[in-house]
Amino acid sequence: MELRDKTFVVTGANTGLGRATVEALADRGAGRLVVASRSRDKTQPVLDALRARAPSTDVRFVALDLGELASVRRAADEILAMDLPIDVLVNNAGIAGLQGLTKDGFELTFGTNHLGPWLLTEKLLPLVQRAPQGRIVNVSSEGHYRAKGIDWDALRKPTAHTTALPEYFVSKLCNVLHAKELARRLAGTKVTTYSVHPGGVASDIWQRRMGKFALLLRPFLLTNEQGARTQLRCATDPALATESGLFYDKERAKEPNPLSHDVALQDELRRRSAEWTK
Ligand SMILES: NC(=O)c1ccc[n+]([C@@H]2O[C@H](COP(=O)([O-])OP(=O)(O)OC[C@H]3O[C@@H](n4cnc5c(N)ncnc54)[C@H](OP(=O)(O)O)[C@@H]3O)[C@@H](O)[C@H]2O)c1
Asked: Which atom in ligand 1 lies closest to the alpha carbon of residue 206?
């Protein structure tokens, strides 16, 4: 895909897989990169590095806290005001292993990994639909296979498990359900959707959970650049322009958790997400 005229919006691009994604897009001559991250201070070195390595790429920062719906709305409004078609939205940002409640009263991992990105996607959809072939890429995880279902009541309470891993698995199942529900809703339009497992990657996510013990895992993990390949393929490969709603691992489509095919569950997630973000 020729990227010169394309606009990419990538969340959580100040570090880890998100940073590797925007750097690869800049190296390939992307026209415009909108880096949507929590902190400008933490993102500034990335913005500087992107501008240095790709002077012709238009690099923009938008402040976005996915754990606060008002911040998601503000960020979306800022991007909508740019009034540009969005070729690709990469819902990359995410947390694992943290306990709590979002500002709006949702379980922290669900709120950050699904509900915030769901609202952002809904708000930005009109701009994605204006692109010649818009794409939405949800960065999920192979952890989604371990989700056994969705306990809707638990999503309105603080994280119940000390590891927060069951909550993570559910949030990542939601990423797959969301991509599938959108694919159905947008069938017959030019917009396609994807969900992705990047692999086990030596990003900050492990360090945030395990501190210095994360170093022990490093030899077994992919680099951020290797891990970003699957989301980059879904974002840019012309061969995938006719595929929508599928789950990808190691750059190939793969059968996801059977629960993700449940249309009633997809629709229930959409209905509740819409109600909870009203
Ligand atoms: N690494 C792996 O092995 C692995 C495996 C499977 C799936 N994944 C998925 O890959 C994605 C990227 O993770 P990563 O491995 O690159 O982790 P990471 O290095 O920890 O990066 C996570 C990114 O998400 C951002 N983020 C966290 N909470 C946010 C919030 N409330 N609002 C906005 N941004 C927020 C972080 O921003 P701050 O720096 O401001 O916190 C950071 O930019 C996640 O969705 C994760 O679930 C990763």
From this structure: 1
Q: Is the CB of 111 under 6 A from ligand 1?
A: no
Is 168 annotated in the active site? yes
Residue 18: CATH number of its domain: 3.40.50.720
Q: What is the pLDDT of residues 21-56, one digit of tens each?
A: 999 999 999 999 999 999 999 999 999 999 999 999
Rounded Cα distance between 270 and 276, Å, is 10
Probe residue for ligand 1, chosen from 9, 17, 44, 248 as the CB with the greatest number of ligand atoms within 8 Å: 17
User: What is the C-alpha to C-alpha distance for residues 95 and 128, in angstroms, rounded to an integer?
Assistant: 25
Residue 233: domain span? 7-276
Q: Which of 9, 11, 15 to mutate to test the pocket of ligand 1 (most atoms within 8 A of CB)?
A: 15
> What local confidence, expressed as pLDDT, does residue 156 receive?
98
Would 11 be classed as within a structural domain? yes
Distance 94 CA to ligand 1 centre (A): 4
DSSP secondary structure letter of residue 203: S
pLDDT mean across residues, the chain: 96
What tokens were used for 249? Answer: 């691992």
